[in-house]
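Entry:
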Amino acid sequence: MEKINFVFLGSSRFSEFVLNELERAGFSPSRKITNAKEPLPTDLEADLFIVASFGKILPKEFIEKPRLGSINVHPSLLPKFRGASPIQNLILEGGEPGVTIMKVDEKMDHGPIIAQEKVAINPFPDHYAIIEEKLAKEGGKLLAKVLSKAELWTFTPQDESQATYTKMIKKGDGLIDMNADAEENWRKVLAYSTWPGAHIFFKRKTGEEIRVVIKDAKVEDGKFIPTKVIPEGKREMEWEDFLRGNA
């Protein structure tokens, strides 16, 4: 089969890993669109548009322009974790890691599934960047398999009764309540480790309140314990060292 002429749209670290795997498998786009803030080009000619974490809602007339339409690689087992923050919510809520290749339609992560694969990640959960990289690489490999068999694509509608949704992460979502559930706080540290950063507001012995980002933590005897922190205006340090100078 002749290789598909495709345009790749991706504007994140996730999309870079996906594209690297595609190119490693011998599939290179005729054009890359990497800035979601700019207007979409009107002169794109391709058999297919591939979307991977692009950061923009694409209009119906755009996604339907290519002969084969548009497909998307999504870092969850759809219809679970549709929306803007599937990886963070997978870490926060638990569940089975995986990737889905789907045909894009005008609704958010709603189109029929072409291929889907569970991804073994051990240990799980882990920090966001680690989970993101592993899912992106497996997504790129699965996408390459899909591209090699375009003439055999079948489309399976998603089960709407099983759909769950995620929201855009806000800066304030990373705030930790030290009295909250220990497991929940630990998962927040992992999920928000890239952005916005799990954090507390700590009152020093001087009475001054400072923002402290928690870079790593553990749960021990049912208690949430930070292990590595970045106090406001300082470098990363051990939590015990921070407490010695501030508590």
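The mean pLDDT is 96.
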